[in-house]
Structure formats: structure tokens, C-alpha cells
Amino acid sequence: MPDIHRTGRCAPTDEPPRRPPCRPADARRAVQRVVTDRCRARHLPLRQQTMDDALLVTSELTTNAIVHGGGITGFDVEVDSGGVRVSVSDRSDELPVATAPVDGHAPTRRHGRGWPIVCHLARDVRVCELPCGGKRITAVVPLG
Fold it and tell me: Start and end of every Histidine kinase/HSP90-like ATPase domain (predicted)?
């Protein structure tokens, strides 16, 4: 690489490298902290129902990434006037599938309820394939 394109070494930082949460509980705590802090700092309204919905969406997306997607490879939460945007990435290329809510196995089925919950609570849900494999699911829970 020509020297003109080189930059100096990065200054050491005391901050640990940012890693995605390993458990849904860790992700929920991160969402609760970020949403509370950003809404307060930006003077955005925050109803308890919005927080509850954002936490449930977070729990479902991270649980699905662990159970069906080979683990959480990325996690992000953002807040703006449009809502709480939660993004979870995993290793799987398989797209989420909604299972019929009523069938002969519904009372005893152990899986298949999370994706419909996410789609019901979020105003916008997007699934993007990642260039190196896997996918990112982003759900936006409205603030108001």
C-alpha cells in the first residue's frame, strides 16, 4: 500500500471491543439502557408499552438467532423519532417462517410463536442477507 494511504496506529482505548450479547437477557438490558438514555436525551416520548414491546421483540429475535440461526453474530439498537430499531444478525441463511397459529399441534408445539409476535409488534420488519453469509433482521417498534 502506498504511504500516502497509510494512517497512523490507532490510539489504545480503555473500552473493551464491542461484542454482540450472548443471551437474550443481555440484549434486553442493552435495549432498556439505550432506549431510556436516548429518549431522555432527545426529549422523545417513551410509553411503558413501547418499552415492553421493544424488549419482547428483542427477546424473540435474539432467541431465534440462538435457537435457529447458529448464534448471535451482530446486535444493534437505535432510537429516533420513528421508533426503536433493533437489529440482530446470525449465521443462518434460512429465512424466518411463520407457523400456522392453529393446527393439530398448536397446544404442544414448542417453537413457531416468536416470529408472528415480532411481526405483530413491529411497524417494519426487514430481513437482509449478509455478504459473508447469514442474515440480519431489523424490526422497528413505533414510539407512539
Answer: 25-127
pTM, full prediction: 0.81
pLDDT digits (tens, 9 = 90+) for 81-95: 899 999 999 999 999
Cα angle, residue 112 at apex, residues 115 and 67 outer, rounded to 5°: 85
**pLDDT at residue 133 greater than cutoff 90:** yes
SS3 assignment for 52-89? HHHHHHHHHHHHHHHHHCCCEEEEEEEEECCEEEEEEE
Domain locations in the chain?
Answer: 20-141
